[in-house]
Amino acid sequence: MNDFLWDRLSSLLEAWDGSMLLRFAGLANASSLLFCELEDVNWVGFYLTDEFNRSLVVGPFQGNVACIRIPFGRGVCGTAAERKEPVVVPDVRCFPGHIACDTASRSEIVVPLVKDGAVVGVLDCDSASLGRFAETEKDLLSRCADVVVEKLFS
What we know:
This protein is of the alpha+beta class.
């Protein structure tokens, strides 16, 4: 599945012309692809960096409604953005400061989108199952994040 996923993701993002409109279209397709291809997920999407407010703002996603703004350092998304590294949480109820946008979510993985040392956003995946995400998903989603940055933030 990995080679298929990279090829499909890469081809979905080829149309980017530098515009915000096509960036959002690419992120929408990327979140849909991951939502459909990953097993046992109930939310997949992107939060994009608002540098002025040092926060993340919800972008394209698949799943239930989401929190609109998350400050850096707060919740799983804000923690991953502040640390500039993936954060895997087996049980979100045990994560200090977790933001419960969807109470059905029990585990989460967040991978920052980093361009030239700056976080431009995060890729966030939630599951209703405890312990759903492991090293395999961290590697897979980190590679997806790299493709997204390369194709949509260059």
